[in-house]
């Protein structure tokens, strides 16, 4: 220590470069240019993905083996598990999920408000064949709610669980027959 009361001591920020504060200025500018709806859209996207994780966990005996799946891949696996026709799953579920992901990517990567508005319009249009028609809502929360409704594990799980059990019985039956044939030979 030099001097009385610590005068002459090096202060913690004395060695910082002169332009150190410019990073904070860039951060302020980035926040100012971020679409004000970004927080809501990112939170809803995360909630949808979490709901997909829960549905996968509830529907698959070893869902943890699906490590590294992204948002779209999770949606595809869940779509493959549904007993509903492809056209229905694509129209009412996969397309809205894809559109929500596009919206999320747009706000996350700094798209202009006009581009975000266009992405919201595409998301709404993806529900055109869905009751109620998309012109009855203008909020992305409602779109997320409709996606959640499609994901509703309480509705889908019994159908999927029954299908999974039937498929497992068929596989066990086939394996038993193969083993019996092998024993005979």
Order of helices and strands: HHHHHHH
Main sheet summary: none
What's the overall average pLDDT, rounded? Answer: 76
The helical percent reads 55-70%
Q: β content, as a range?
A: under 5%
Tally the helices.
7
State the secondary-structure class: mainly alpha
Query: Compute the gyration radius: what is it?
Result: 26 Å
**Total domain units:** 1
- The dominant shape is flat
Low-confidence stretches: none
Can you count the beta strands? Answer: 0
N- and C-termini, Cα separation: 91 Å
Write the layout of secondary structure elements.
Layout: H1 22-33, H2 38-59, H3 71-81, H4 86-108, H5 113-125, H6 140-151, H7 153-184
Helix pairs in contact: 2-3, 2-4, 2-6, 2-7, 3-4, 4-5, 4-6
Describe, in short, the structure shown.
The protein has 185 residues and is mostly helical.
Question: How would you characterize this protein structure?
Answer:
By secondary structure, the chain is mostly helical. The protein has one domain (36-168). The chain has helices at 22-33, 38-59, 71-81, 86-108, 113-125, 140-151, 153-184. Helix 2 crosses helix 3, helix 2 (38-59) packs across helix 4 (86-108) and helix 3 packs antiparallel against helix 4 (86-108). It is flat.
């Amino acid at each position: 220590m030099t001097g009385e009361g610590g005068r002459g001591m090096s202060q913690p920020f004395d060695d910082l470069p002169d332009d150190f504060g410019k990073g904070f200025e860039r951060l302020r500018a980035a926040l100012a240019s971020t679409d004000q709806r970004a927080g809501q859209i990112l939170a809803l996207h995360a909630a949808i993905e979490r709901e997909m994780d829960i549905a996968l966990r509830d529907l698959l005996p070893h869902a943890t083996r699906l490590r590294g799946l992204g948002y779209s891949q999770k949606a595809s696996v869940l779509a493959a598990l549904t007993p509903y026709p492809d056209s229905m799953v694509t129209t009412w579920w996969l397309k809205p999920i894809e559109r929500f992901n596009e919206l999320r990517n747009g706000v996350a990567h700094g798209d202009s408000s006009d581009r975000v508005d266009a992405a919201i319009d595409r998301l709404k249009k993806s529900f055109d064949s869905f009751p109620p028609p998309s012109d009855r809502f203008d909020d992305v929360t409602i779109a997320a709610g409709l996606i959640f409704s499609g994901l509703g594990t309480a509705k889908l799980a019994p159908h999927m669980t029954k299908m999974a059990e039937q498929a497992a019985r068929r596989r066990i039956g086939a394996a038993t027959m193969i083993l019996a044939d092998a024993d005979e030979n």
